[in-house]
Amino acid sequence: MNKNGEDIWIENGKIVTPVKTVHFEDDELYVEIEDFTEVEVSAID
C-alpha cells in the first residue's frame, strides 16, 4: 500500500493502481483512474 492506504504494486516494471472505471469501446479497453498516474493496460482474449 502507498502512504494513503491505497493498494499499489509493481507489475512488469509498471506501477499499478486500482482503477475507477473500465469500459470497452470498439474492442479497445479504456481505463479511468483516480489520480494522475500513467498506467498501461492490455486486454486478455
What features would you describe in this structure?
This protein is globular. 0% of the residues lie in helices and 42% in strands. It is an all-beta fold and 45 residues long. It has a domain at 19-45. It is built from no helices and four strands. It starts with 8 loop residues before the first strand and ends in a 12-residue tail after the last strand.
Any key phrases for this structure?
45 residues; mainly beta; two-stranded antiparallel ribbon; two-stranded antiparallel sheet; 4 strands; 42% strand; globular
Q: Topology, please?
A:
Blueprint: E1 9-11, E2 14-16, E3 19-25, E4 28-33
Antiparallel strand pairs: 1-2, 3-4
Strand elements, count? 4
The helix/strand class is mainly beta
Poorly predicted tracts of residues: none
Backbone CA Rg: 12 Å
Strand order of the largest sheet: 1-2
Count the DSSP helices: 0
Short note summarizing the structure:
With 45 residues, the protein is mainly beta. The chain has strands at residues 9-11, 14-16, 19-25, 28-33.
